[in-house]
Amino acid sequence: MPKSEESNVAAPEILSGELDLKERNNSLVGRIANEIARSITDGILKPGADLNSVDLAVRFRTSRTPIREALMILEKEGLVDIQPRRRPRVANISLQEVEQIYEIRATLNSLMIKLYVRNASPASISHTISSFEKMKEFRDKQDFDGFAAARSGLHNHWAENCGNANLLELLRTWKMRMSVSRLVGRRGNDMSRSIQDHERIVLAIAERDEPLAAELIRAMTIWGFTLIKRDHQLRQGGA
């Protein structure tokens, strides 16, 4: 029996959510999934927002089939909620789930930075230092977007040069990349705290101190959840 165009049908690799990093970057479905995920994790698409496949098809200049497949990938990663006979929505996320995500991130980040310190070339460490200097420049200008991009670039550099491709793939799942700004908004005042945290990590990297770098990045990751929890409590108190 033929299925309607609105039914959730996709190739097996899409249903399983198994697109590797290269496919994510090069395939149409992967590029669409990345763009939608970025809009979600950056807070442009808010929790509970409708994801209209027709509107998205117009935006990406494609049919609805790649859109549905991209949304199914993001459902697997917990960013999208798809219910039968209902329009897909940006998934709501509980404080408990956020805490669990940040606990995992803290562990993965600790391992990542230890491997980076162990494997980084002198040129890579020089890149780390120059990237941190860019963060400070954006902080001084109170340019949050520039600061966030520089910080993200620094973290990506560490992950890409840690020497463990499987760990890199885990860190690049969209749920692991969920930003504090998506959940609590953009806080210019927290740039100074971030600079302090990153400065200590960069010094530990320069001194090739694996345990210290790992402990510092773990503490910084947990601080990210502390911001989210604080904001949640303020909202609850004001409700």
Please tag this protein with its features:
239 residues, mainly alpha, Arc Repressor Mutant, subunit A, Four Helix Bundle (Hemerythrin (Met), subunit A), 2 domains, two-stranded antiparallel ribbon, 2 strands, 69% helix, disordered N terminus, transcription regulation, TF_FadR/GntR_C, transcription, DNA binding, GntR_C
Topology:
Elements: H1 12-15, H2 21-26, H3 28-41, H4 53-60, H5 64-76, E1 80-81, E2 89-90, H6 95-119, H7 122-141, H8 144-160, H9 165-171, H10 180-184, H11 190-206, H12 210-238
Antiparallel strand pairs: 1-2
Helix pairs in contact: 3-5, 4-5, 6-9, 6-12, 7-8, 7-11, 11-12
CATH architect. name of the largest domain: Up-down Bundle
Indicate the multimeric state: single chain
The profile of the biggest β sheet is: 2 strands, antiparallel
Order of helices and strands: HHHHHEEHHHHHHH
The CATH superfamily title of the largest domain: GntR ligand-binding domain-like
